[in-house]
Amino acid sequence: MSYGNAFSNKPFERASKTAHTQIINDPDVKSFISSCHLPPLLGEIDKNDLKLNTLSDIASKPIKHYFAIDGGYSNVVVRPQFPSATFAFFQFGALYFSGKDLAELEQKPFIDPSDMSKLQQIERFKLQIPTKGITLKTENGLISSVRKSIHDFFISKPERQSSFASALKWLVFEEFDKSTSVDTWKLSSCPSCGEGVHIEKSSLGTNYKALCPVCNADVFLTDIFRLHEAIDNELGAGGILGYLTTTVEQIIVAYLIKQMLTTKSDLLGEVLFIKDGPLAFFGQTANMHKPMRKLIGYLQANYNIFLAGVEKSGAFVEHAAQMSHNFSSGQYMVLGNKYIYKYIIPGKSEIDKPYASTTYYGHKVIFKSEDGNMYVVTIPCQDLLVEPQPSDLKNLEVILRNVSTLKCDLYSSSLMPIVLVNKLVSLASHPSSDLLRTFTQATLG
What we know:
single chain, 445 residues, alpha+beta, 31% helix, 20% strand
């Protein structure tokens, strides 16, 4: 890396104009590049690899209600000069609307604002954490400050009902199924001493924390996300923001499912949950896919569950857009290892290891709706398969049919509930970040 001149009037050290020749002429570099593999271009796809299925002529019933879940965050620079400081603001939303309200709205020549408000019944949840150069006054460092902030969010939200922490405990200890519930969760490292410990369900009080058996420090239930492992007191917590966002979104889904099972279990079979993004946990939180798979299996065996993760960007969405002309309206394809590793993700298919089996709790499906939109949808299942078939994904066609009816013409292959919830919770770079920075600076004094 070249030298700068931030603290003097001396010139920058410019990068060399000829050093690239050392790379180009190096035989080891040439050998390495020639050993790499590129997926084939669109015109090179073998039509025999397209296992297309046609959506049967079924109604969208029994779906009568919809929940769309999304979240957004903005990492605000509170102080740019040394020592620099940043602060992250999150906003999550669970948007509810009924199929009846949507159908009535579609039949009206003009939309009244009061009618539109029926489709904007959203519950917002706000979370804020320091990410660099700021700590809570009660904590001794950034790591403990972030942990405490996340823990407090989980035990205090939603405000009027049971908390997200109760839903997290219900999920990880599999309390939804009394016959298989577990009493212990293995935590790979205590945030304080770094030793591997077990969190005993019986040791969690109403505040959802226990004591580390090694160092006697507090261990929060939310530490099972392992986000503390990706935070550094000097470098900051910027690396956890995406992981935290998608994790909270899916805990909101689990919370809603728990509430329905507790109050009116029959309602679960009439609701479609739509999550923005795939049904997966990434990075430090990846282990959370295991209890989610158990929950899905339990619901599919004893009740019913309609859940879809809809992607808006990424390699699979780009591939689906390019493949549009190969699909007829109403056709879909369930993706397996052979197709994914051959045409989308460079790599070799493993015989006994399904794609993303350590992060996902569902399989990806490419679907072309009757109006020509292409969607990439994750359909949940308990057991991932190397080469899944449509029959392996329960409620597949009902979910796809409903996805088709929720189209939005504002953006390419967009869904109305995802567009709405994103508009209601997302935080723009401008003016949201600017205003949040000013707000934070004024509040900090």
